[in-house]
Structures are given as structure tokens and as C-alpha cells.
UniProtKB/TrEMBL annotation:
InterPro entries: RNA_pol_sigma-70-like, RNA_pol_sigma-70_dom, RNA_pol_sigma70_r2, RNA_pol_sigma70_r4_t2, RNA_pol_sigma_r2, RNA_pol_sigma_r3/r4-like, WH-like_DNA-bd_sf. This is RNA polymerase ECF-type sigma factor. CDD domains: Sigma70_r4. The lineage of its organism: Bacteria, Bacillati, Actinomycetota, Actinomycetes, Kitasatosporales. Keywords: Sigma factor, Transcription, Transcription regulation. Signal peptide: none annotated. Residues 182-230 form the RNA polymerase sigma factor 70 region 4 type domain. The keyword Transcription applies. The keyword Transcription regulation applies.
Length: 248
């Protein structure tokens, strides 16, 4: 079985949802309501049997989001691609050891994260995951704009914070610009914040899954998510305010 499968999944057009989120094939309804991947137990059996079609389906379903996540830990796209390649090789070699204690996707993502963190440490970019920001450091935007870490929706706008109303004569083009603003803001985040925001808001993982994948506490996850969301929303608000002023 080989990893190369033609055009990489992350180079293909994506569908977008919340915050420019690319919807992976496993999240897209197929004819008859079926997803592109079979249940884990079936997929694992196929992969262990050397089924290259099953492996290509998994590559297509997950490689785009895995590349984005790997990029959270390393400094260049080229390094992220190397991390992705190393991850898939490790998955192939380690399939016999998969015990099903977590979902196959979570198991693959854990391998990716560990590989990316190791590479990031070599680049002297990654801080220890057990540490938080310095004591007393506050959020990256004005606290009154968004909900606090202990609120129901940390990082979301507070009630009454107000939204920016703006005209959208070229909706598709502006939507692409918004995605670019969000992507640029994510790039500015510290590594830990970026990884948490990517997993929660881009990949759609639940709290417990993120804590398990990143080996952080629930409290750390809430603080990192709050600070990351607040920063991204601050950048987005600046862009929307400028866009509104440009059309009025």
C-alpha cells in the first residue's frame, strides 16, 4: 500500500461552513444518506487487508483537515505536508495495534498531533502543553465584547454586543475575503490556542475529544478556546467595520 494517491485532498475545492470551515467528505451526505467511509470496524478490517480503495477514501476524507491541523504546530506548509506524510506512514504501520478504544479518526489525529508536536519542538516553536500563558495575561481583545471562559459559549459575542451590518454586493468574493481574514487571524494565534480553535471550530470536535487529543485539562481548553476565539473575532470585526465604511 502506498501513500501517494494522485491529487492531494487538500488541493481540491472545499465546501465551507462556520468560520470558513471546510466540510470534509465524511460530513457530506451522499446519495441514499450514506457517508463516504464505512463504520470503523469495517474500515479497519479493510485497511488491515491492504485494501487500497479504502485507504484512498480515508485519505480523501481526512487529509485536508489533517494538513490544516499539522500547520498549527509547524512553521511552513512544506513541513506540514511532511508531517502528514509521516502520519499516514505511521498509521499504516500501526494498524495492527489499533484497539478501538477511541474512534479511528481520533486515533489517526492523535498520531498526527504527536508527530506535528515533535516536529514543532525541533523548530523551537512549540511550548509545553502542560503550561498556560503567563499568570495574569488577559484575553487578546476587550473582555466586554465576548463571553468569558466560564460562560456557556466562551469567546462568542455577548448579548447586546452588536453585529456589524454591511452590504454584500459581491457575496461570494466577500465570503472568500472573510475566510482569508479568519485564516490570517488563526496564523497569528499562539500554537496552543490555534490548535484548540482549529479542532473545536474548524474540525468540529467536542470538548472531551480535544482535551484527549491535546492532553490538556478541561479548564485549559476553555481558556485557550476563549482567547483564540476572542482574537479571531476581534480581527473579523475590524475587517467587517472597514468593509462597511468602504461601501457607505
Amino acid at each position: 500500500m502506498t501513500v501517494a494517491t494522485g491529487s492531494p485532498a487538500w488541493e481540491r475545492p472545499a465546501r465551507y461552513g462556520r468560520w470558513g470551515r471546510a466540510v470534509e467528505p465524511t460530513q457530506v451526505d451522499r446519495p441514499g444518506g450514506k457517508s463516504s467511509l464505512p463504520p470503523d470496524e469495517v474500515l479497519v478490517e479493510q485497511l488491515r487487508a491492504g485494501d487500497e480503495t479504502a485507504f484512498r477514501l480515508m485519505l480523501d476524507a481526512w487529509s485536508r483537515s489533517m494538513l490544516r491541523l499539522a500547520r498549527s504546530f509547524v512553521s511552513t506548509n512544506a513541513t506540514a505536508e511532511e508531517v502528514l506524510q509521516d502520519t499516514w506512514l505511521a498509521v499504516i504501520r500501526g494498524l495492527d495495534g489499533f484497539q478501538g478504544r477511541a474512534s479511528l479518526r481520533s486515533w489517526v489525529y492523535r498520531i498526527l498531533i504527536n508527530t506535528a508536536k515533535d516536529r514543532g519542538r525541533k523548530e523551537s516553536r512549540t511550548l509545553p502543553w502542560t503550561s498556560l500563558a503567563p499568570e495574569g495575561s488577559g484575553p487578546t481583545a476587550e473582555p466586554t465584547r465576548s463571553q468569558r471562559p466560564d460562560d456557556a459559549y466562551p469567546g462568542h459575542w455577548c448579548t447586546g454586543a452588536g453585529s456589524v451590518s454591511w452590504l454584500m454586493p459581491e457575496g461570494a468574493a466577500l465570503a472568500a475575503e472573510v475566510r482569508a481574514v479568519i485564516a490570517a487571524a488563526l496564523e497569528e494565534l499562539p500554537t496552543r490556542q490555534r490548535a484548540v480553535v482549529m479542532l473545536r471550530d474548524v474540525e468540529g470536535y467536542e470538548v472531551q475529544e480535544v482535551c484527549s487529543l491535546l492532553e490538556i485539562s478541561h479548564g485549559n481548553q476553555r481558556v485557550l478556546l476563549y482567547r483564540g476565539r476572542t482574537f479571531v473575532r476581534d480581527r473579523l470585526k475590524e475587517y467587517l467595520a472597514k468593509a462597511e465604511s468602504d461601501v457607505t
